[in-house]
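Duplicate of #3305? Posting structure anyway:
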């Protein structure tokens, strides 16, 4: 059952009641110190140095070093997507008359199974190289002068770093998914100073913050002409990388030379190359064992799997028929007319292979992901409310799941709580990742089979 909440613009849209503090900076601090902080980086980027990230290898939380005045703080608080992002309101604002809509996928103009026809781009991308191919196309056609992307830092190659790419080489350097926390919006000042049209790539909470800034015509986003982004199941704390290395008896992560999360042929490998030439590598599906131990709690409060507020978003085309073939296949969703036109033009120019699918097929392909985000999250939010915890307000709610689905969520949450403890993290690092990865992958398959019908009940019956 879908419930759209009513809201009143004069009353701070959908603001959680516990954040009704007087000063904006106090309200922002409440978000920052809670699970609601998405780490999008907007408050850091817009704060002129008053808010910084001090501990990217740890909790990765913004720290207020100087309190900005009320006007500045109110701007930062508005940009924060952690406490509220009203889906129906922003949909109405940015997507006029979409061709189609589903509560799970968001606005849809077209959906395809896709890949870049340039083998170099395809092989360097996380899946079909679609996002990179689009950025390169826009750059070559003079529609943008730069693209906001996230690569690995040159100075600290174990951490991610957003930057503005202005060449094909730089776009490809930033290709592939990074599964540790990123804070793209830290570079809002650079985005503002660029003064030429830009494309922007970010995860759903980062995109949501950009949309909130566009809503108020904030100067920091005036150069952003196109918004793209990957699907978003979850992201991990940096402790995942440390733990992975520890299991190979490597203690000093500061000797990392290169860190990849999707190295090699799709679906790729987590791979770390050390300065002393040691290399450790594990298939992506096995490296997924790190998820329950190191997941960022906020990922579990996010209800946006497919990056609903982009012009075009892309995910992996998870289906045996594509996985068997390797090479790289994406699912791509054009959400705006602009996004749709880009895909049409690229197809006509032979730059993309596009194979149309329906919304139902798309939902079935990512049924586990949608279950996690559109059912699991709303159940988790109810549990949190029951426990008196503050929740983000998304302006809508999905309710009425079968009792078995609630029970399944209890089991999942218990697992996350137990495996997220220091002891469990320490314990798992004592075993070879190849063995743990295989056990994890096997258990996941058994779990998926066992919960198949619970998850699918009415999965695509809502719109
Ligand atoms: C944290 C995370 C979780 C994901 N979860 C899922 C999932 O559950 N299901 C699914 O189908 N797909 C998921 N994806 C998307 C998938 O991994 C691919 O990114 C997507 O298929 C696009 O592939 P591509 O080859 O077109 O992208 P590419 O051509 O490789 O381009 C990827 C672009 O995304 C940017 N980028 C990469 N990582 C980040 C990041 N962490 N933050 C901001 N920008 C980033 C890069 O700068 C690059 O521009 C996830 C991606 C990420 C980053």
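Output from current build:
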């Amino acid at each position: 059952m879908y419930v759209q909440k009513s809201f009143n613009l004069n009353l701070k849209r959908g603001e959680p009641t516990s954040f009704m503090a007087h000063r904006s900076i106090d309200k922002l601090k409440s978000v920052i110190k809670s699970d609601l902080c998405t780490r999008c980086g907007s408050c850091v980027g817009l704060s002129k140095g008053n808010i910084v990230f001090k501990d990217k290898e740890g909790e990765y939380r913004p720290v207020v070093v100087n309190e900005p005045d009320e006007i500045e703080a109110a701007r930062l608080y508005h940009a924060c997507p952690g406490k509220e992002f009203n889906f129906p309101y922003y949909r109405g604002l940015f997507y006029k008359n979409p061709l189609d809509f589903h509560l799970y996928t968001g606005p849809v103009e077209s959906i395809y199974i896709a890949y870049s026809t340039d083998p170099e781009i395809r092989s360097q991308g996380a899946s079909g190289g679609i996002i990179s191919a689009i950025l390169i196309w826009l750059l070559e056609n003079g529609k943008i002068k730069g693209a906001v992307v996230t690569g690995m830092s040159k100075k600290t190659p174990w951490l991610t770093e957003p930057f503005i790419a202005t060449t094909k080489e730089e776009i490809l350097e930033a290709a592939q998914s990074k599964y540790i926390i990123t804070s793209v919006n830290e570079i809002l000042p650079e985005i503002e100073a660029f003064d030429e049209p830009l494309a922007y790539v970010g995860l759903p909470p980062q995109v949501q913050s950009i949309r909130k800034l566009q809503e108020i015509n904030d100067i920091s986003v005036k150069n952003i002409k196109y918004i793209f982004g990957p699907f978003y199941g979850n992201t991990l704390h940096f402790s995942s990388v440390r733990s992975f290395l520890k299991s190979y008896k490597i203690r000093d992560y500061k000797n990392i030379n290169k860190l990849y999360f999707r190295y090699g042929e799709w679906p790729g490998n987590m791979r770390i190359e050390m300065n002393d030439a040691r290399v450790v590598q594990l298939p992506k599906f096995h490296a997924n064992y790190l998820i329950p131990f190191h997941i960022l709690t906020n990922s579990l409060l996010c209800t946006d799997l497919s990056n609903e507020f982009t012009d075009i978003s892309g995910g992996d085309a998870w289906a045996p028929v594509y996985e068997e073939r390797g090479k790289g296949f994406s699912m791509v969703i054009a959400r705006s007319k602009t996004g749709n036109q880009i895909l049409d033009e690229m197809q006509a120019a032979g730059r993309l292979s596009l194979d149309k699918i329906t919304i139902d097929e798309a939902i079935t392909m990512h049924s586990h992901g949608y279950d996690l985000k559109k059912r699991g999250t709303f159940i988790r939010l109810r549990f949190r409310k029951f426990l008196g915890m503050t929740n983000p307000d998304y302006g809508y709610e999905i309710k009425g799941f079968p009792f078995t689905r609630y029970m399944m969520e209890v089991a999942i949450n218990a697992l996350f709580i137990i495996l997220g403890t220091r002891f469990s993290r320490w314990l798992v690092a004592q075993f070879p990742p190849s063995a743990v990865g295989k056990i994890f992958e096997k258990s996941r398959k058994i779990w998926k089979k066992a919960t198949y019908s619970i998850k699918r009940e009415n999965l695509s019956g809502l719109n």
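Confirmed duplicate; merging threads. The first strand starts at residue 2 and ends at 4. The chain has two domains: 2-79, 85-463.
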